[in-house]
Amino acid sequence: MDSDERIIGIKDVAKAANVALATVDRVIHNRAGVSKKTKDKVLKVIEKMGYQPNIMASNLSKSKKIVLGVLLPNISEGSGYWEFPMKGIVKAQKELSQYRIKIKTFTFKQDNNKEIRKKVLELINSDIQGLVLTSKFADEIEILLEDCKEKKRPYVFIDSNVRKIDSLCSIQQPLFESGELAAQLFNYCFNKGEILILHLKDTMDTEGIIGLKEKGMNAYLKEKNNSIVTKSLVITDFNENAINRMLTQTLEENPMIKGVFIPNSKVAYIAKYFEKRAGEKIYLIGYDFFNEDIEYLEKEIIDFLICQRPEEQGYQAVYKLFEHVVLKKEVEKEIIMPLDIITKKNYKYY
Amino acid sequence: MDSDERIIGIKDVAKAANVALATVDRVIHNRAGVSKKTKDKVLKVIEKMGYQPNIMASNLSKSKKIVLGVLLPNISEGSGYWEFPMKGIVKAQKELSQYRIKIKTFTFKQDNNKEIRKKVLELINSDIQGLVLTSKFADEIEILLEDCKEKKRPYVFIDSNVRKIDSLCSIQQPLFESGELAAQLFNYCFNKGEILILHLKDTMDTEGIIGLKEKGMNAYLKEKNNSIVTKSLVITDFNENAINRMLTQTLEENPMIKGVFIPNSKVAYIAKYFEKRAGEKIYLIGYDFFNEDIEYLEKEIIDFLICQRPEEQGYQAVYKLFEHVVLKKEVEKEIIMPLDIITKKNYKYY
DNA sequence: CTGAAAGCGCTTACAG
DNA sequence: CTGAAAGCGCTTACAG
């Protein structure tokens, strides 16, 4: 049962090809300074013997560290979301520290363009060999991406890639489909009435994202061809009183509203309003799971949250860079995250 | 910004403690043959210098392979589920192959006690240093677990640990809570009526599992104090005609049934019946996601599936054994999987 | 273009 | 109980 095949190493290849260790190494890493003839000979032997490099040995003998960069918003009010990808990044870092991988983090305040540009400049002048970032702030990072392309520095997007910018890999949730999913869930709760889609504008370029979710929602409703329609409301003023006023007015004017869809991570703001509101149950569906949502999930004021495993996105982003830079593996261009559904009864295990 | 702290190794410790490399090695691995005095001295230096072992180097110089065993049902009709943990196990194996980890798989037909016992015997007489298995088949594996305890072989349970058997780690979904979740979902679909709980008996000891799910469901309904009640139906004959007959009769006699809860992975069997059935919509909630469910999800005959990331369970099981055996890390006694909700609109990304 | 040799940080016989 | 030395499978100057 024990097939104790001897592991064949660079030494075996060298002997079989009748060359020195260093030559085999050069061929394996495609380094210059090997004649075509020798290279072919070695390649053939590698192929025939089924040589597999030993990463542990390789890393052990390597001297230089590999540094990866991370450019993300810092964790502050209004951008608490970024805590989760960061956790995943830190986890990956710990796991990979044995491989002499280091991570340099560059954070900035979301609406501070000057700070973003400063960090971009720091990154351009740094010695990183790979980069994790989000495709939001597209204008500010454009120059950084150009620089990366020139220097052949790989970069990975997390959280979104709405403008379809080229990258080593982009990791995101399917947006359109998440809108469909939300519609399906609403449809389980009621099959006649209106869904109010709230556009909570903040400074980020998220209209593209919200737009896709909205399209998905309408697509599902159309497909089911039933009596649910959507209605949009744009909120620009985040002041609590302003929100209350707008919602009260809208709900009074539209008594058929049975559900509210908040296509970003600001559900708790809105749930607060519904907690105090009397009248018939209105179903709430939002995105992403925060501590402040728990209270409203427990009271079933927030009914469903659609989540995208942000921690895993951060982890995967670093891991894919590692695979590319260290292991020289092929990396898939796109990783699509599952659409997780969170309710009162399963958030504890998420 | 670059804190280029020199990594301190066994050599540095040896020099600082004024002993030989081998002695430091002995202390690190708690091997015999070191005087208390020397040991304390070395330990103190390790502590002070903050020495961290380099696993890559450690593994490279180790000669012997580590073999882990896996004892699970084979993949056949009626037990297709085990394909998923197996996938995770294979994934972990690939990732860990660099660490000289080998996995020996022992599979058996679920209802073949003789075969289980045979595999158990093989395992007892094997040279494995860790074991992945499920706590189902508790009677058959009892002797194996005793043997493991005696030999101090660690073992990890996946999929369930209803009888609360001791192990290095057990990985499972929260059963009671999954019943609550199912009840919550039904409650979104209707708020008056009956839920039929189907007990599809097969040869495995799964009554404990089903019982817990049922209790969770009733707990939620009671908590909500509304007008949904449950009703159980036991099916022992899996013949299609028999199922049809029993269901038709039950539904006729109980016109208030609005939902059917199938607390195991056999939903597709039941969905087949509902596909052909005329009459008012009856909601279906089941467990685990298989290819044969897709058709019924698409038609929204199956409404929700509650899933437990079986692939990740297999992966984690192997990984935890690896952490324990190779890295000598502390491993958590229990890993609770999230309760994933799958519908027509998100199964593609699961 | 090619090779011999030292070294990465550990483990493992072997000698004392 | 303790230590000196070889070796794990690679990479990296250095010499030719």
TrEMBL record, chains A, B:
GO terms for molecular function: DNA-binding transcription factor activity; transcription cis-regulatory region binding. The keyword Cell division does not apply. InterPro entries: HTH_LacI (IPR000843), Lambda_DNA-bd_dom_sf (IPR010982), Peripla_BP_I (IPR028082), SBP_2_dom (IPR025997). It holds the Pfam family Peripla_BP_4. The keyword Cytoplasm does not apply. It comes from the Bacteria. Residues 8-62 form the HTH lacI-type domain. Keywords: DNA-binding, Transcription, Transcription regulation. PANTHER family: LACI-FAMILY TRANSCRIPTION REGULATOR, LACI-RELATED TRANSCRIPTIONAL REPRESSOR. This is LacI family DNA-binding transcriptional regulator.
